[in-house]
Give the backbone structure.
Amino acid sequence: MIQLPEVIKNAVEALTRLPGVGEKTAFRMVMNMTNWKATELTTVSSALSSLQYLKICQQCGMFADENLCSICSSEGRQSIKCICIVENASDLMAIEKSGHFKGVYHILGGVLNPLLGVGPDELKMDELREKIIKREIQDVILAVNPSVEGDATCSYLKSILPTSVMVDRIGFGIPIGGSLEYLDPMTITKALENRKRF
Amino acid sequence: MIQLPEVIKNAVEALTRLPGVGEKTAFRMVMNMTNWKATELTTVSSALSSLQYLKICQQCGMFADENLCSICSSEGRQSIKCICIVENASDLMAIEKSGHFKGVYHILGGVLNPLLGVGPDELKMDELREKIIKREIQDVILAVNPSVEGDATCSYLKSILPTSVMVDRIGFGIPIGGSLEYLDPMTITKALENRKRF
């Protein structure tokens, strides 16, 4: 078997750290990159390295260019006294893509998971409560994914918030384009519970 | 729609340059990388950037740690007067993996393709002929992939080599584990032509 240069081995090893990239894929990528110009390699490597200087919005926890993200720095959105609580940045963007939420967000950074040592302190839930009270938020939308941990997180959040705050959880049911035939019994149960007068 | 930081956009753009990585995959990768430690990001980016310092074996064109690759620097392999001509490094490695070729290689770096402006000069075929004559090579194995351009490349190579050199092309036929039912007519034609007395 041919002994490959360290440079190649290191690059393959580096790429396998990416999600969904195994050794074969990484190797194929590196083989392709061996044909790249030095400037191209530098561009890519510095773009990836720059991720360490990514800023986080001090208010909602979203990625930001400055101290506040583009949503939190919008006065129009701040004036709406509604906050949407999500697990992570990807979930925030998914909701933002729908274009139907006009308030601000709060990124929890996870869900309560006692087995992994994630409790209310790790998710800074006290800070969140303070923020909601201080900003006189009237509506809280829990856009936390449905799972045992997600359900527990929602229950806990509801319990620590003042009773004057309206707390909703996003609706569960059949996704648009979905087919009853292929959906799991739990989703169908939820869809039946959440039926609406037609 | 939320305005994402430049840092993220650049990282996504950088990753889409990798083969088989579209915008969605790149984005998913970057989202994952936002959770990485700074040291991890530096390791990956410098490993990729180092690819520009990759050395090429002066004799066969394979990637190398030094001036010669591990195959060309092996005296045992140099002493065998047989050279295997391949299109690229991946093809070389595929043959090397089989473990049945004991001679040295020569990487062409492509095949003749007049439409793309790749002629005998671009592939340095004169140098290859000189090398074969100087090293008193007796056997040349053309391990060029079957295609119109590959066939033309093989014919051209055969025509410029001295008649004293034996030139073979690797065999075409049914791959092991392959099923006649699913193979294309061209492969079956070749397999019938290349039949062997049993």
Summary: Residues 164 and 179 of chain A are 39 Å apart (CA to CA). Chain A touches chain B through 59 residues (CB under 8 Å). Chain A has a mean pLDDT of 91.
